[in-house]
């Protein structure tokens, strides 16, 4: 992420107010010890305190029809849902809530507020120094220069009625399950740099890229002569670097290996995101005309992911293998490739991967979910 630690500390000081941190009011989170807190919310006490203060200052402008809960209690309901995908009866009873319907309203409200924080906590590298730093770290891992981030479609399972045939088909992705999909970009450390509004699962990756804010900015040269690394579902362009579909020699094979290596950062990042926020394993029912609530939950989890990383909070232990990246939905008809983009990729390969040692890195650079 582009924001350095001093900026985050300044934000926290502003949120807490001058000297207010020494006189914090009692919180409903105080009833949990540190171990129980992590098990219930997959976050640490200091991280939760920061999140609660960030939400509290924004909730002052939110109007609720029936505001029964203080802000920290609303945050507790939402964080518990994000962590487990359901509202725990223990949490609801602790807060005196007998109906889950109100919990749904609370989760929706808090998700909307956190999603609105994305401009502050999900930051694409905008300055020359920030871009150079991100590109340097990526090149150190895989040997590919001038890369600003890793691009991928993130599919999140949903339920939809098979009896509503037209709606049902729109949500079926290329792996034959129903999902919504968001375009996400991350850096080499697993910080999320960009997350776009979600679409139905059948949406083509290239279509999402072309209609996205970051896609238009990149292709219009607003971020300089940099690439983002994308999979086979994207078209090679001046700013999207895809693998060679049929490597003709060793250097193209070495480039593809380097491409896979940095692309695996996204795989690990999404794995970490789903482990911490298990609501993303199954987002419930969705309709094509009302994706805003799902989109807000996804964006809220991405914001919280970045905050958790700034506080060095590890995700819960892995259960099973990391879910592979979605292979991408490719066009059924051949796509004409930009000849200038082909030439630029070939030049990159010739300069950086002609020698066996090019793009090779020590084993310590292996990517796992624990690294991101």
TrEMBL record:
<dbReference type="GO" id="GO:0046872">
    <property type="term" value="F:metal ion binding"/>
</dbReference>
<dbReference type="GO" id="GO:0016787">
    <property type="term" value="F:hydrolase activity"/>
</dbReference>
<dbReference type="InterPro" id="IPR045249">
    <property type="entry name" value="HARBI1-like"/>
</dbReference>
<protein>
    <recommendedName>
        <fullName>Putative nuclease HARBI1</fullName>
    </recommendedName>
</protein>
<dbReference type="InterPro" id="IPR026103">
    <property type="entry name" value="HARBI1_animal"/>
</dbReference>
<dbReference type="Pfam" id="PF13359">
    <property type="entry name" value="DDE_Tnp_4"/>
</dbReference>
<comment type="similarity">
    <text>Belongs to the HARBI1 family.</text>
</comment>
<keyword id="KW-0479">Metal-binding</keyword>
<dbReference type="GO" id="GO:0004518">
    <property type="term" value="F:nuclease activity"/>
</dbReference>
<keyword id="KW-0963">Cytoplasm</keyword>
<dbReference type="GO" id="GO:0005634">
    <property type="term" value="C:nucleus"/>
</dbReference>
<comment type="function">
    <text>Transposase-derived protein that may have nuclease activity. Does not have transposase activity.</text>
</comment>
<dbReference type="GO" id="GO:0005737">
    <property type="term" value="C:cytoplasm"/>
</dbReference>
<keyword id="KW-0539">Nucleus</keyword>
<dbReference type="InterPro" id="IPR027806">
    <property type="entry name" value="HARBI1_dom"/>
</dbReference>
<feature type="domain" description="DDE Tnp4">
    <location>
        <begin position="156"/>
        <end position="306"/>
    </location>
</feature>
<keyword id="KW-0378">Hydrolase</keyword>
<keyword id="KW-0540">Nuclease</keyword>
């Amino acid at each position: 992420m582009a924001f350095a630690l001093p900026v985050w500390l300044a934000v926290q000081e502003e949120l807490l107010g001058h000297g207010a941190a020494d006189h914090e009011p009692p919180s409903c989170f105080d009833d949990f010890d540190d171990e129980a807190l992590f098990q219930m919310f997959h976050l640490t006490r200091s991280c939760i305190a920061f999140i609660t203060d960030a939400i509290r200052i924004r909730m002052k402008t939110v109007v609720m029809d029936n505001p029964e809960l203080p802000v920290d209690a609303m945050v507790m309901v939402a964080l518990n849902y994000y962590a487990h995908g359901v509202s725990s009866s223990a949490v609801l009873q602790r807060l005196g809530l007998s109906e889950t319907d109100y919990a749904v309203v609370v989760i929706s409200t808090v998700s909307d507020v956190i999603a609105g924080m994305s401009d502050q906590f999900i930051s694409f590298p905008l300055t020359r120094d920030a871009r150079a730093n991100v590109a340097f770290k990526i090149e150190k891992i895989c040997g590919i220069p001038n890369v600003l981030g890793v691009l991928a479609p993130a599919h999140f399972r949903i339920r939809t009625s098979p009896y509503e045939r037209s709606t049902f088909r729109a949500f079926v992705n290329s792996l034959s399950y129903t999902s919504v999909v968001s375009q996400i970009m991350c850096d080499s450390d697993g910080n999320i740099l960009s997350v776009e509004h979600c679409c139905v699962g059948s949406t083509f990756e290239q279509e999402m890229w072309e209609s996205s804010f970051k896609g238009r900015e990149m292709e219009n040269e607003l971020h300089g002569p940099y690439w983002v690394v994308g999979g086979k579902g994207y078209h090679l362009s001046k700013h999207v670097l895809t693998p060679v579909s049929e490597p003709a020699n060793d250097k193209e094979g070495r480039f593809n290996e380097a491409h896979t290596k940095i692309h695996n950062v996204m795989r690990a990042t999404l794995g970490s995101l789903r482990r911490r926020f298990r609501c993303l394993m199954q987002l419930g029912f969705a309709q094509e005309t009302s994706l805003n609530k799902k989109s807000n939950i996804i964006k809220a989890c991405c914001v919280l992911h970045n905050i958790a990383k700034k506080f060095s909070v590890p995700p819960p232990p892995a259960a099973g293998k990391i879910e592979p990246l979605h292979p991408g939905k490719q066009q059924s008809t051949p796509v004409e490739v930009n000849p200038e983009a082909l030439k630029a990729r070939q030049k990159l390969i010739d300069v950086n991967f002609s020698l066996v040692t090019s793009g090779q890195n020590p084993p310590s650079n292996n990517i796992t979910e624990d690294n991101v």
